[in-house]
Amino acid sequence: MRLLVVDDDAHVRRGLSDVLLPTKQVSVVGSCATAGEALDAVSRGLEFEVALIDLHLPDRPGVELLRLLQRSRPQSVLLAFTQFDDPESIFGALESGATGYLLKTTSPPRLLRALTEARDGGAPMTPSIARKVVESFRQRRRKTAPTALSEREADVLKKLAVGQSYAETAAELGIGLGTVQTHVKNIYRKLEVNSREEAADWASAHGLIETPGAHGR
Asked: Domain check: are 116 and 151 in the same one?
C-alpha cells in the first residue's frame, strides 16, 4: 500500500515510518510537513493509495488540503489523522473529503488495520469518533423530525405504522381515502422516505409507536 503522510510534526512522520515499514504492507511514498509540500509532490506525479492528513497544518487548514486532494486524486482514500475530537473538526474533515477519522492515539496494530480497511473500501474511525458521529445524527433527528408532521399526518402515520390499510385508517379517522393518500404523500416528502417500512421505522424511532408492527399495505 502506498501511503502519503502529511503532518508538521517530524516525530509523528518518523514514528509512522518506523512502525509501518517493518510490516512490509505499507510503503510511505510521501512524508510532508505542510499542505504545500503535499500539493507540490502530487503535482509532480506522486501516486498514493491512502493518505493520513493532520488537520492543523502550518500553512493552510487540513480540511482545505482534503478538498484539494479529493479533486486532484479522487481515486485515493483520504483519512484525517489528528489529536482533535471536537464535532467541528470531525464533520469539517468528513464534509471535505475524508472517508475516515483516526486519532493519533490509535495503536500501531489498529492503525495498520484501519489503513487496510480504508484501501479496501471501508471508512475507519476511532471508536470514540464513530460514537460521536452516530450520536450527532441521533440528536439531529430528535431536534428536527418530530416537528415535521402536522397533527393529522402524525395520526395517519401511527395507523399505517402498525399495519392498518389506507381504508381502515380513513374509517377510524373519519376522513376520505383520497385524503389519507394525500397525507401519506406529504409524510413521505417531509420525512424523505420512500416506503411504509421507512416511515414506520421513523415513527418507532421518534416514539409515535412503541414497536414497528406489520408494514404490509
From this structure: no
